[in-house]
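Lab notebook, bench 4. The sequencing result for the construct came back, and we need a structural model before the next group meeting so we can plan mutations. Quick request posted to the team channel:

Model the 3D structure of this chain.
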Amino acid sequence: HYRVKQDGSRICHLLDPRRNESASSEVIAVSVFLPSCMEADAWATALYILGTEEGITAANRHCIPVLYTVRNGEGFAQIESEALESLVND
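Done. Here's the predicted structure in C-alpha cell form:
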C-alpha cells in the first residue's frame, strides 16, 4: 500500500515515528510466522517500519521467524531471520 509522488518516490501508508515520515520504500512485504495472527500482524508492522537491517536484528534477538521481501535493483530479494532458517531446515 503506497502512493507514488511526482518525482517517482513512494510514500508508504505506514509512518516511522522515529523520523515522522513514511516507512522505508525498499521493503515490499514482511511475513511473520507465529501461532497468533494478532501477534504476527503486530510484529510485521513493527518490523516493516524498522526496515531490513534493524528488523532482522530485532527478529533474531526475539527468535521470530521472519521473511522480508525487498526491492533489489530492478528485481526483488528475500531476507530470512535465523529463526525462519531453522524452521525451514528442521
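The mean pLDDT is 85.
Will bring this to the meeting.
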